[in-house]
Write the structure tokens for this entry.
Amino acid sequence: MTDLSKQLIEECRSNMQGAVKFLEVSMNKIRAGKASPSMLEGIKVDYYGNPTPIEQVANISTPDPKQIIIQPWEKTMLSPIDKAILAANLGFTPKFEGDILRITLPAVTEERRKELVKRAKAEVEEAKISIRNVRRNIIDKVKKSKDQGVSEDEIKVVEKEIEAITEKEIKASEEVLAIKEKEIMSI
């Protein structure tokens, strides 16, 4: 197998695994009843005119499974953090308590659990689309490698390897969904 073929297979594997890792991060943001600092990841706070990740302007902790405590390093950041959380539309409202913000997570109803599972399935579908796009792009590169002296037989071997990687990563994304669905639906 040529270096180009090996490089394309590795690029395929790397990109597809990246899609599954991104899916895992997205799944962590879907709340299943337990408080976690990762629920606030991705929220940007207006820090003196600059959008800054919330974890860079405050300490975030979970004293128990139903609460998140946000303690800004500067007291003046309480209001911008509150506004950023509300703007993120995560389904909960922070309460001011002195120099901290406390978020008490509401109980998750059966209807809400079903909505969360639906959202998780949508995230998995996006990951699968991303994986398939990677496959299509790499297959195109493999077919173009014929111009660079790669034999037809090797192209077929590489395409078969790419299909195997694709199936493996799609199965991995479905396993991520199964775990999250079980977590969401358990009381």
